């Protein structure tokens, strides 16, 4: 009787140790596999620095790469707001002011409404300049590009 | 020992002097308190509208860490001009009490009028508050983009004021204002065309 009890406790002991070890392994492996988008960096440490993208300013503007390409913007644009109330780009690029500011005027195609009729002011569907026109940064392309333009 | 005795005169003069110092000092202290940004944005009309817009601009945050606060642009530095502006500002207290612009909608409907007042004030003093920091004398035109330096040289030759071109740089432009109509030489060009 005494012997059996002793062996039982031994068995129980080893079982508990085994189970504990298993759970520990499971938890640790679970902790290893879960990783946030930020990596396994602790929350209170700083994230990697985001590389700066300096906007390129090009005297005289960029050439087009193909016919009907929306011209690229050769200057910084963060100061110019485009809202329903006003369009900062038109300060220099409008019909009225482009000569004085020596800036290219908004293309004539932008003064034609949906119905094909000419509009007095810039057509509403052409109002948000940066839907098509974009400034350029000084970065080199991420992927090699052999496009030569038309 | 009457009021007109020698000692009495001295006492009156001394009392007057001390009270003068206290009142003058107190007056200027209060005046300076009303000349701080914290005072300006203690009204929600300022904090919720124009202040929020300003925090996005270069006058609030920039590479070198120099900041222009509300009074730097909107209150003259020189004492006499400051007092005149402060007296005019009592009208703003009246409108605060009346709640003229106490909602976003009311503010937006008055924005053009309010902006025009401030533009007119700045232009009438030749953008004096801008020129407390910005000076043509210390501008390096070689470091500016060609477009900017061309226009600045034009401005010097024609005596244009900063605010004539640089509207809406610290706050959003109001609805109904067309900057392309307002370029200082635009009117001359139109005359030539006609």
Structure description:
The complex is a heterodimer of chains A (about 150) and B (about 190). Chain A has helices spanning about 1-35, 90-95. Chain A has about 150 residues and is mainly α. Chain B is mainly alpha-helical and about 190 residues long. Helix content of chain B is about 60%, strand content about 0%. Chain B contains ten helices and no strands. Chains A and B meet through helix 2 of A and helix 8 of B.
In short:
By secondary structure, chain A is an all-alpha fold. Chain A is built from two helices and no strands.
What secondary-structure arrangement, pairings included, does this model have?
The complex is a heterodimer of chains A (150) and B (194).
Chain A: H1 2-33, H2 90-93
Chain B: H1 6-33, H2 37-40, H3 44-54, H4 70-74, H5 79-88, H6 90-98, H7 104-124, H8 146-158, H9 162-165, H10 186-193
Give the radius of gyration of chain A.
33 Å
List segments of chain A where confidence is low: pLDDT < 50 over at least 5 consecutive residues. none
Helix content of chain A: 10-25%
Specify the structural class of chain B: mainly alpha
CATH topology (fold) name of the largest domain in chain B: Multiheme cytochrome fold
Percent of residues in β-strands of chain A: under 5%
N/C terminus separation of chain A: 97 Å
Notable characteristics:
heterodimer; A: 150 residues; mainly alpha; Flavocytochrome C3, Chain A, domain 2; 2 domains; 2 helices; 24% helix; 0% strand; B: 194 residues; Multiheme cytochrome fold; 10 helices; 58% helix; disordered C terminus
């Amino acid at each position: 009787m005494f012997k059996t009890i002793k062996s039982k406790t031994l068995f129980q002991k080893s079982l508990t140790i085994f189970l504990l070890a298993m759970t520990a392994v499971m938890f640790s492996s679970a902790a290893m596999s879960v990783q946030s988008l930020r990596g396994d960096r602790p929350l209170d440490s700083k994230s990697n620095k985001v590389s700066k993208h300096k906007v390129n300013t090009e005297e005289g503007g960029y050439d087009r790469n193909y016919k009907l390409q929306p011209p690229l913007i050769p200057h910084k644009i963060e100061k110019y707001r485009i809202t329903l109330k006003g369009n900062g780009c038109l300060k220099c690029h409008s019909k009225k002011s482009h000569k004085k500011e020596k800036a290219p005027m908004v293309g004539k195609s932008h003064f034609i409404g949906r119905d094909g009729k000419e509009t007095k002011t810039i057509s509403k569907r052409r109002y948000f300049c940066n839907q098509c026109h974009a400034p350029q940064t000084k970065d080199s392309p991420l992927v090699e590009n052999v496009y030569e333009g038309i | 020992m009457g009021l007109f005795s020698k000692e009495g005169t001295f006492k009156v003069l001394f009392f007057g002097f001390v009270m003068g110092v206290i009142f003058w000092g107190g007056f200027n202290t209060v005046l300076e308190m009303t000349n701080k940004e914290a005072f300006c944005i203690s009204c929600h009309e300022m904090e919720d509208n124009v202040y929020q817009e300003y925090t996005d601009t270069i006058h609030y945050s920039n590479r070198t860490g120099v900041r222009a606060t509300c009074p730097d642009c909107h209150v003259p530095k020189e004492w006499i001009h400051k007092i005149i502006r402060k007296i005019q500002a009592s009208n703003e207290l009246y409108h605060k009490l009346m709640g003229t612009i106490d909602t976003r909608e009311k503010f937006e409907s008055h924005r053009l009028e309010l902006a025009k007042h401030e533009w007119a004030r700045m232009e009438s003093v030749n953008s004096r508050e801008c020129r407390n920091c910005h000076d043509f004398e210390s501008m390096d035109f070689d470091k500016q983009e060609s477009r900017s330096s061309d226009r600045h040289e034009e401005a010097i030759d024609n005596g244009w004021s900063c605010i004539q071109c640089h509207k809406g740089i610290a706050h959003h432009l109001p609805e109904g204002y067309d900057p392309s109509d307002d370029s200082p030489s635009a009117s001359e060009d139109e005359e030539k065309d006609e």
